[in-house]
Amino acid sequence: MDWVKEDLEAIWHPCSQMKDYEDLPPIIIDYAKGIHLYDKDGKAYMDLISSWWCNLLGHNNIRINDAIKNQLDQLEHVIFANFSHKPAIELCLGLKHILPKNLKYFFFTDNGSAAIEAALKMSFQYHRQNGLGEKRKFMALTGAYHGETLGALSISGMDLYGSIYEPLLLDVLRVEGPDCYRCPYGETRDTCACPCFEQVEKAFEKEGKHISGFIIEPLLQGAAGMKIYPALYLKKLREACSHYGIHLIVDEIATGFGRTGKYFACDHAGITPDIMCVSKGLTGGYLPMAIAVATEAIYKGFYGEYNEGKAFMHSHTYCGNPLAAAAGVAVLKILEEDCVIEKANENAPYFKEIINGYFEDYQYVGEVRRLGLINGIELVENRAEKTGFDPKKRIGYAIFKEGLKAGVILRPLGNVIYFNPPLNITRKEMAIAVERAFSAVTAVLGK
Ligand SMILES: *Cc1c(COP(=O)(O)O)cnc(C)c1O
What we know:
By secondary structure, the protein is of the alpha/beta class. α4 runs antiparallel to α13, α5 packs parallel to α13 and α14 runs parallel beside α16. The relative contact order is 0.15. Pyridoxal-5'-phosphate binds next to α6.
């Protein structure tokens, strides 16, 4: 069978201009192991983006495989209203152990965007039925990414994904987010006192009493180009939200489970949000599952006699799927027993060193920024002026194609190439990956 031809005649791929596929047909992956994907002809690709940031512990991980297989012979799925099962309960117990304290009640959904939608509705409903009905708006940062469904897209601040749908979207209050590489205050990321936080203060002063929740990607605005900002900003946001009675909703979908060097990005700031959304690494990147985790205070705001009408009447067919939950339980076990995060942290300086070795002095590198094993490299046309390449040139896409030839998957975000590999990538793999990535970049931009 001509798999590529059949694919192109049937499948509408996500986030793609399908015309591009005429030049670059879809790569049919047959098998994967660790950080490697193998296509139908046996060619290997290093998965340096963790298959859209979700694969946490390598592909085809024996322990996660076994957990799912064992669960499969027990129970594949069951309605989650009125029914429950051991894997979901175990998963929550495990998560309570590692989450910021006070996050205690777990509302399951089946993907990240859906968890965001649940969090928005939860926050809104909480205020509405607890005497704070004027709190009906949400606030978020420029450059935010929280998913693609209409609510999640509304709070996202990226024109690339959202602008055409503008007439359909919620009216969200937007605050200029931190931009540490091109800091308008002339500060540097590691030492500043976050003067840019004044933008939030001003907005809260003006609109605070109408705001239900502030939603934020903690420390790392991923889709915006792996933009990293200081933990102090989060601390200030926690304080300000508490002061104005605004829910702090933290989107840890990309940052959770060790990606930033700690279990959660919030841990760098020592804060507890009112609602935290997790997904992606939650199942090791195996199966779709997400959770909006709430504090007891929020949970109690929905508690009462049925006829009071305070329940959270929200559901998805696959809420709490047992196979995904079993994968999640295995992931937590592996993270703890194998000290995965500690080991990744030990390897991070090595990764930094080789990346800097190739990239730091390269004429088109504006900034290399990092958090855990995530390393973002912003390419600029002019280093001194920090001017980016014209997006129409699509240099990121050209680098992606060169990377494929070299056997690495880099999927640049605009002009930012990045590494976000599974946490158990070895040093040897790091060295090979970076060398290949550099060759892909120079193949496009020259030496
Ligand atoms: C991926 C992602 C989402 C959306 O999750 P989906 O499962 O793709 O709907 C939301 N927020 C962040 C930060 C993400 O990285």
